[in-house]
Amino acid sequence: MKKFLRNPKGSRDWLPDEIIKQEFVRRSLVRVFELWGYQPVQTPILINLDTLTQSSDKLSEIAFKLIGQHGDLLALRADLTTPIARVTAERLKGEKLPFRFYYVGKVFRYHARKTTNERELYQIGIEFIGAKEGASDLESLKILLESLDKLGLKKYLVSVNHAGLWNELFKYFGNTAAELYKALSKKDLILFESVINKSKLSRPEKSFWNELIKLRSNKDAIAHMKKLNGLKKKLNKITSYFKKINNLFGDRIQIDLSLTSDVDYYTGIYFEAVTPYLGRKLGSGGRYDQLINKFGFNVPAIGFSLCLEDVLLALELQGKSFDGFKPPKLFSSGKNIKKTFNIINKLHKKNKSATLKL
Amino acid sequence: MKTSGSELTIAVPKGFLYKGSYKYLFSLGISLQAENSRDLVFYDKKNKIKGLLVRPADVSVYVEHGSADLGIVGSDLLMEQTPDVIKLRDLHFGKCKLVMAVKKDSVYKKSEDLPANAKIATKFTKLTNDFIHKRGLSAEVIKLYGSVELAPLLGLSNAIIDLVDTGETLRANNLTAIETILESSAILIVNPVSYKFKRTIINSLVNL
User: Fold this and answer.
1) Local structure of A351: helix, strand or coil
2) How confident is the model at residue B204 (pLDDT cuts 50, 70, 90)?
3) Most buried one in A28, A150, A273, B65, CB count within 10 A?
4) What is the pTM of this model?
C-alpha cells in the first residue's frame, strides 16, 4: 500500500466545505471592522527574531525560530500585534493619526494553546493606533461585542481588568501583591489563599484580597476598589473609568479585578471573551501604550484578536448551520464549444455559476 | 453547557481518591447515584449535578476541555500534567507522597549516590525529569504504566519514583524510600470558563 505523507503535528488542511465556514467567520468580522472604519494590513510571516524579543519574552519563547542562509536569526510570527507595531513605527511615523487597522492571518507557536496540539492558527482582530486611553478603549470593547453578536454567538462573556490596578497594588502591597498576581496567573487559588495567610497583611487587607476573587457584579467590583483608604485615591481614575464602562455596557462587560493577562505588554485595560460552548477563551485584547515605542515610535494603541478556529468551533458546538456549496449549472460542451462558453458566460454575467459538464 | 438538565458536571476519579471524593461530595449535600452498577455517569437529580467516573489521569483532561466543570484530582497528577485549570481548593484527603525508592540492601542512601546514567523507572516522567534537573543528576527515565516496584527488583532500573501511601507496597517488595519529592493531596479543580459562567453556583456549592 502506498504510504501517505502527512502534515506535521499541529497543522491542518482546509477543504472547500470547511473554507465556507471559515469564510463566514472572516466576512462577518471584517464587515463589522470595516463599518467602523478599519482598514486591512498584512505583514510577513517570516520575521526577524529581534522583532519578537523586542516585544515580549513570552512570545519569543513560544515562537518557531529559524536560521537564515547567512546565519541570521529568524522567526515565524507568533502574533500580529507585534509585526503591526513594527511596521507602524517603521513606515507610518509622521502620518496623520489615528490608524485603524484590521488583520486576518496565521500565527505560529510551538504550542498555540495548552489543551490542543495546534501550532498554527488564524488570528483575526483590530489595532487602534494613536489614541490615548478613553473613548478608543470603549470603541474597541463595543466592536468586540458587535463582532460576537454578528457571528451569532448566543452566549458569551467579556471580562475586563486594568493593568494600572495591578501596578498600584504592587506599589502598595509590594512583594505580597506580586506573589498573589503570580498565583492568580497560575490559576492557583490554593496558593493565593496560602500567600494571604502567611503574609503580614492586616485584617481588612486580607479581606480585600479574599473578596477580590469572589466579586461578581460590576457594582461590587467598583465598590471594592474604594475599600482600602490607602489605595482609594490612587485608584480614583481607574474606578471612574470602570464606572464609565459599566454605564455604557452594563452586564455585557464584566469587571473582573482578578483577571490576569497572558501578554506582558498591556498598560491599560485588558480583556478576554469566553463562551460556555468552549472550555477556553475565544480571544483577548488590551491597551499597549509602550509597545510601538520599543520599535521607535512613541504612540499609544489598543487592540484585540479572536482565534478564528476557536470561534468556528464554538459556533459549531452551539449548533449553527452554515450555507452549503451551491453547485454550478452544468452544460455539455457539445460540438460547438464556443457556443457553450457563450451560454455559460451569459449566466456568469447574471452572477450565476455555470461550468462544463465533464 | 453540553449537559441536558444538569447544571454542573463533576469528574470523580476511580481508585485511590474515589472514597474520599464520594465522602467530600456527600458532605456538600451531593449524593451521586448510578442507575446501573456499570454506569460511568451518575446523577444527583435534586441538585442537578452529573458525576463522571473516570481514570485519575483523565480528570484534568475532562475539566481542561470543559467537558466537566469540576473535578477532583491529586496534586501529584496536577503537577505532572500541568493542565490549564483553576485549582480551587485543597481537600486535605487522599494524602500520599511521591518518593524515590531503591532496594532495601542498596548502597544508595540519597539521590546523589546514584551512578552517572542511572535508570529511574516511574509513571511520573515530568516530575522525575524536573527532579533530575533540580538535583543535577544524570539519569535516564524509564516510563512505566504500573507495578513500578518491579523495576529495581528485575534490574530494569536503579531506583523508582512513585507514590506511597502507607509504604506497605514498598516494604512488601523489599524497597525503601530514600527521598521525598513532594506531598500530595486531593484538589478540587474547575474549568476557567465554567468558573466565569457558573461562579455563583460553584462558590455556593463548595462554601466559598
Assistant:
1) coil
2) confident
3) A273
4) 0.89
**Residue the block writes with cell 511521591:** B98
Superfamily of domain B8-94+185-205: Periplasmic binding protein-like II (3.40.190.10)
Q: Does B192 touch chain A (CB under 8 A)?
A: yes
Residues A96, A142: one domain? yes
- ipTM value of the model? 0.85
Annotate A159-175 with DSSP letters as a single string.
EEEEHHHHHHHHHHHTH
Q: pLDDT of A283-307, one tens digit each?
A: 999 999 999 999 999 999 999 999 9
Among chain B residues, the shortest Cα distance to A155 is held by B197
Which chain B residues are Cβ-neighbours of A317 within 8 angstroms?
Answer: 2
Question: Can B8-94+185-205 and B96-183 be said to share one CATH topology?
Answer: yes
What gap in Å lies between CA B164 and CA B170, rounded to an integer? Answer: 8
Chain A residues in contact with B197 by the CB 8 A cut-off are: 155, 157, 274, 276
Least Cα distance to B91 among B13, B185, B195 occurs for B185
Taking a C-beta distance cutoff of 8 angstroms, is the pair B183, B93 a contact?
A: no
Instruction: With respect to residue A319, please indicate whether it lies within any of the assigned structural domains.
Output: yes
State the pLDDT at residue A274.
95
Q: In angstroms, rounded to a whole number, what is the distance separating the alpha carbons of residues B134 and B143?
A: 19
Cβ of B197 within 8 Å of Cβ of A278? The answer is no
- The residue assigned the cell 525503601 is B176
Q: Which long-range contacts (CB under 8 A, 24 or more apart) does B141-150 make?
A: B148/B121, B148/B122, B148/B123, B149/B101, B149/B173, B149/B175
A165 shares its domain with A261: yes
Which architecture characterizes domain B96-183 according to CATH? 3-Layer(aba) Sandwich (3.40)
Q: Note whether A280 contacts B193, CB cutoff 8 Å.
A: yes
Give the residue, B204 or A299, on which the prediction is more confident.
A299
